[in-house]
Amino acid sequence: MTEFPTSTDEYKEGKRNAFTRFLDGVEWLGNLLPHPVTLFALLALGIVLLSGLFGYLGVAVVDPRPAGAPGVAEDGMIRAVSLLDGDGVRRIFTGLVDNFTGFAPLGVVLVAMLGVGVAEKSGLLSAAVRSLVMGAPPKLVTVAIVFAGIISNTASEVGYVVLIPLGGAIYYALGRHPLAGMAAAFAGVSGGYSANLLIGTIDPLLAGITQEAAQLIDPDYTVLATANWYFMFASTFLVAIIGSLVSIYIVEPKLGKYDASKADPTILDDGMMKPLDDNERKGLRWAGIALLGVLALMAITLVPDWGILRNAEDGDRMDSPFFDGFVVWILIFFVTIGYAYGRATGTMKTDRDVIDAMAAALGSLGLYIVLVFFAAQFVAFFGWTNLGAITAVTGANFLVETGMTGPTVFFLFILLCAIINLSLGSASAQWAVTAPIFVPMLMLIGYSPEAIQAAYRIGDSTTNIITPMMSYFGLILAWATRYQKDLGVGTLIAMMLPYTMFFIFFWSIFFYLWTFVLGIPVGPGSPTYYTP
């Protein structure tokens, strides 16, 4: 069994303060739940039964979206839909397979893992990780992982399918708890979802929804994709600092020293602590050359005005096939550099070696695929029954009824968005339902749609890492069980809960200071106040 040294004093075991004991309690309660696969199956069944009850009782709320908008019923109501009547049962039977195959993260993960498998089997990932982290200061590595997770949001799903498992491998190579590395990466990728140095694919999507909601009050109002850029740029550094401190001083000490006997033996590599030899250095040089080739190809397809992967209609680079299909670049990237490394070191000689590597990578996803089948049914049933939308509208109406008008209303607004996000995980889906309530309401008491959207994004991001409704939650859980076979939902939630608590507290205060104390706009041309 591999022995792991204690890297620094703050990682010593035995320190259990009140907050750590609270997290222990959360973990204990969460782990009373059944196996995650069983849990999602029971949740899906529960949604079916609950929909029957709510459908029978006629539960409904007024749809805040304008009449005639996509998805709005003729009577302007959102009603609970029963899955226990004839139509519901038929829909379950005919939709079961499509729910599974159409689950958005499934295809992304499978395609990406084809490439990652080649890089892993060739030995590239092991050599690259060791070259990056051997001798690096532990705290600096943590900061780099969290920061990279935040930045990865520009490249769509790359953070979920590549960086989070890589975070575990990096920590394992350093002799630290791999789950702490995964937690740091997860906090950056998902907890810091709305913070970034660049405009991401989510920005124009949210801006469009906000603009439609704002035009209910002011028909000529426009919201730009860059509406929150200043605030999100600054938030990148705030989230990176908070995420790193939580990782170093709370999460890793709580996890303690890693016990490799609890891991899947196939994930452990005793060579992860060995220095690079000459053959591996040669392989990395050839992988670097291949990397430059891939980057040049990516630039050719995006940078020039004639780039084939730019938006065909308006030439836009961000809203383009380049980013919409970024998982293809992940596949090309890892296959190319992995094979280049393998050919140089002799670990890959024929196409057969590449195929075997791909097959082995997909073979390791057995638990994830089973988990996705039941998780996909739960998510689909939840959407069919309208229970998520009803929850969102009910929460929004609660905020309206508080009657608060001062800037402190944004603290309650952010908290409410965070709670709603626990049941309606998609940022765009949640905002499409709640923006027609929140935006006009807060505009009428004097706040701009741009500031409202920035506050919403804080609430939406901070609870991504603790809700099973987040599309990639099952994937993170499946990867975590490779390092700790008996890991349950409670362990993962307790591990990520400190990030949520500190993110929402300090990020909300930062928003209040930035917007209302310092008076800095949240983005270029974005006002803070609106005059009705």
Count of runs of 4 or more consecutive helical residues = 21
Overall mean pLDDT: 84
Low-pLDDT stretches:
1-14
Shape: globular
* Strand composition percent: under 5%
* Strand segment tally: 2
Q: Could you outline the blueprint of secondary structure elements for this entry?
A:
Blueprint: H1 18-30, H2 36-57, E1 60-62, E2 77-79, H3 86-101, H4 104-122, H5 124-133, H6 138-151, H7 158-173, H8 178-191, H9 202-214, H10 229-255, H11 278-302, H12 321-324, H13 326-345, H14 351-363, H15 366-384, H16 387-402, H17 409-421, H18 427-444, H19 449-462, H20 473-483, H21 489-517
Antiparallel strand pairs: 1-2
What does this structure look like?
- By secondary structure, the chain is mostly helical.
- The chain has helices at residues 18-30, 36-57, 86-101, 104-122, 124-133, 138-151, 158-173, 178-191, 202-214, 229-255, 278-302, 321-324, 326-345, 351-363, 366-384, 387-402, 409-421, 427-444, 449-462, 473-483, 489-517, and strands at residues 60-62, 77-79.
- It has a two-stranded antiparallel sheet.
- Helix 3 runs antiparallel to helix 15 (366-384).
- The radius of gyration is 24 Å and the shape is globular.
Features:
532 residues; mainly alpha; 21 helices; 65% helix; globular; disordered N terminus
Summarize the structure.
This protein is mainly α.
